[in-house]
Amino acid sequence: MASRRLLKSRGLQERLNAGESILCAEGYLLALSRRGYITHGVWVPEFILEDPAVLKSVHYEMAHAGSDVIEAFQYNTHREKMKQIGREDDIEKINRTALKIAHEVAEEKNLLFAGGISNTNQYVKGETEEKVRAMFEEQVRWSKEEGVDYMIGETFSFLGEAQIALEVIQSFDLPAVVTLTVHGAKGEDGVVRTRDGVPIGEACKDLIDRGVTITGVNCTRGPEMTLELVNNIVQVCPPEKIGALPIAYRTTPKEPSFMDLTDSICPANNPVYPRGMEPFCVSPVEIESFTKSCTSLGMKYLGICCGNSGELTRTMAETMGRKPPASRYLDHTQFGFLMKLKMSGEL
Ligand SMILES: [Zn+2]
Question: How far is the CA of 281 from the centre of ligand 1 (A)?
Answer without folding.
Answer: 13
